[in-house]
Amino acid sequence: ETGVTQTPRHLVMGMTNKKSLKCEQHLGHNAMYWYKQSAKKPLELMFVYNFKEQTENNSVPSRFSPECPNSSHLFLHLHTLQPEDSALYLCASSPLVRQGLYNSPLHFGNGTRLTVT
Amino acid sequence: ILNVEQSPQSLHVQEGDSTNFTCSFPSSNFYALHWYRWETAKSPEALFVMTLNGDEKKKGRISATLNTKEGYSYLYIKGSQPEDSATYLCAFIPNRDDKIIFGKGTRLHILP
Predict the structure, then answer these.
(1) What is the pLDDT of residues A77-89, one digit of tens each?
(2) Interface of B with A (CB under 8 A)
(3) Of A90, B31, B71, B81, most Cβ neighbours within 10 A?
(4) What backbone torsions phi and psi does residue B64 show, to the nearest 5 degrees?
(5) B31/A40 Cβ within 8 A
(6) Which residues contact A56 (CB under 8 A, 6 or more apart)?
(7) CB B96 to CB A100 under 8 A?
(8) CA torsion through residues B28, B33, B38, B44, sign
(9) pLDDT one-digit tens code per residue, A16-27
(10) Which is nearest to A92 in space by CA: A111, A79, A114, A117?
(11) A3 contacts in B (CB within 8 Å)?
C-alpha cells in the first residue's frame, strides 16, 4: 500500500470547469512533487515544494495552480484546461536530506487520470 | 536539453528466462540515478538509487549496475516471473540541485 494517496483516481472535466486534485502523504517527507505523464512521453516534472515552499515551477501554464498548505498535503487546482492537458497526474514525495533532494527515491501515488472534454 | 534514453522500448521475455535493458544518460555530469518499476494501475515503485561509478545493487532477482564515465546503467532480471511484467523507468540527476529527468521506460512483458 502506497504512503501517498491521490484523489480522485479519475476525473472528467469540461474546458470551463474548475476542479482540484488532492495528494496526501503520511511518510513524514518534506518535499512533494507534481508530475504529468502524457501518452508516449516521459514523466514530466511540474512543481516541487520543499517545506511548503515552491522551489520549482517547470514553465507550467497558469491554468495549473499548485497549493501546499503543509508538508503532508498538496493540491493542484485546475481551471480552463485544454484537451491536450488530458494525462495522468502523479504526486510524489521524498525526504529532504542534506545531500540533496534526489539522494532518496521518490514515493509516488497512484495518480489521477484526467480527461478534458 | 538533456536526454535519458532507455532501450529497448518494449521487450517480451519467456517466463524463467533472464533479461536486461539499458538506461543511457549524458556522461558529462553525474549526481544520481534512480530505477523504478511501474505496474499497470499502480504507482511507480523505487528499485534502486545509484550514486557511485561502479555501483552494483541487488534486490531479490533484480540487480543494477552503473557506469558514470560512459553514461549507462543496466537493469538485470534473473529468472523472469509474471509479476515482473511492468514498465521500468530510469531517472537521471546530473547535479545536486538539478531536476530529475525521466526516460520513457522499458515495457517488459513476461510470457507464460
Answers:
(1) 999 999 999 999 9
(2) 4, 31-32, 34, 36, 41-46, 49, 51, 89, 91, 93, 96-97, 99-105
(3) A90
(4) -140, 145
(5) no
(6) A45, A47, A48, B99
(7) yes
(8) negative
(9) 899 999 999 999
(10) A111
(11) none
